Amino acid sequence: SFTAFDFSREFKRASIDRVLANFVKEGKIRRVCRGVYDYPRYSKLLEQLLSPDFDQVARALARKFNWRIQASGIAALNLLGLSTQVPGKIVYLSDGPDRTYNIGQSELQFKKAALKNIGFKYRESGLIVHALKALGQQHIDDDVIKSIRKKIDVKKYNQIMLDTNTVTGWIY
Fold first, then answer.
1. DSSP-assigned states of every residue in 38-100
2. Strand partners, 69
3. How far apart are alpha carbons 102 and 79 in whole angstroms?
4. If you write DSSP's letter for every residue of 125-145 in order, what string do you get?
5. Cα 51 to Cα 90: distance, rounded to the nearest angstrom
6. Closest CA to 117 of 74, 160, 70
7. Is the pTM of this model over 0.90?
8. Has residue 143 got a pLDDT over 90?
9. pLDDT score of 87 more than 90
């Protein structure tokens, strides 16, 4: 996903808007929500366009507004492959204001959060912390730990441990 902001260093805004509008008319890109676009993906199996990738949409909006964001709850679980549930509301924590975007049948919501909840140096650190919080201490077992380890590069283990040393004890 991308916004006009992603091209603003190379081109003038009027040119960007004109090209994006033409590409939407031609079906080369689609407007996901106001100011956000993606390349539509088609499923031969389902014989229809697939929904936008919410993580990419969230990251495009974060670039546009210069926010730090962190997937929370079900979104973090999905990104780590710990859940296949498709929620009606996808929540990201942010250092920006509270905002909600309607995307198809779903809501992409940004909630203002304290820096300690979003200020991780590594994306994987935040995903792990928020996924574990969403599961709750009583639901974390060896299978969950193994699933997380499969998603994380072994070379990042020490970095993640240093990055998360201030989180709640049971999560750390």
1. E---EETTTTEEPPP-HHHHHHHHHHHHT--EEE-THHHHHHTTS-----SEEEEEESS--EE
2. 94
3. 20
4. HHHHHHHHHHH-GGG--HHHH
5. 13
6. 70
7. no
8. yes
9. no
Alpha carbons 98 and 105: distance in angstroms, whole number: 20
Q: Which residue, among 58, 92, 94, has the nearest Cα to 76 in the 3D structure?
A: 92
Extract the tokens encoding 75: 């979104």
CA distances from 145 to 80, 83, 131 (A): 11, 14, 11
Asked whether the predicted pLDDT for residue 135 surpasses 90, the reply is yes
The pair of three-digit structure tokens given for residue 4, joined into one six-digit string: 């006009």
Q: How confident is the model at residue 14 (pLDDT cuts 50, 70, 90)?
A: very high
At 109, the amino acid letter reads: Q
Checking if the pLDDT of 7 tops 90, the result is yes
Say which residues have a Cβ less than 8 Å from residue 157's Cβ, sequence separation at least 6: none
As a residue count, the chain comes to 172
Question: Residue 104's CB: how many other CB atoms inside 10 A?
Answer: 11
